[in-house]
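Thread amino acids onto this structure.
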């Protein structure tokens, strides 16, 4: 395979990795927002008394919900979100590693192309 084709292929792979990284970063940001929102809800639940009423929105309807069930649901959601954050973090590290490998491959190909270009004799002018 020629160096130009290798360079084009490696560049394409690197761009795909950059797109994957962007998607993973976006997913991480969404999870951070969800985590913050659910932690805020959990703090609000800490201020509730047994006399308070909690409602859960299901579509356009508010349905009365037991406080203990609501707290449990939020705790479960927090655990799930934290697990997803860990998964996305490992995905980000994996993509970063692949990007670094591909970046090094690109540098090596470009260096080889430059060396070959420098070794070619200059065209003579008559």
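Threaded sequence (126 positions):
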């Amino acid at each position: 395979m020629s160096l130009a084709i290798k360079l084009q292929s490696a560049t394409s792979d690197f761009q795909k990795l950059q797109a994957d990284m962007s998607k993973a970063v976006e997913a991480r940001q969404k999870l951070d927002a969800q985590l913050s929102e659910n932690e805020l809800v959990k703090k609000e639940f800490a201020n509730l008394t047994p006399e308070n009423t909690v409602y859960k929105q299901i579509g356009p309807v508010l349905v009365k919900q037991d406080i203990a069930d609501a707290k449990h649901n939020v705790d479960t959601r927090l655990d799930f979100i934290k697990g997803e954050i860990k998964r996305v973090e490992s995905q980000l590290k994996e993509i970063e590693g692949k990007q670094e490998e591909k970046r090094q491959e690109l540098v090596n190909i470009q260096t080889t192309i430059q060396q070959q270009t420098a070794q070619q004799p200059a065209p003579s002018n008559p």
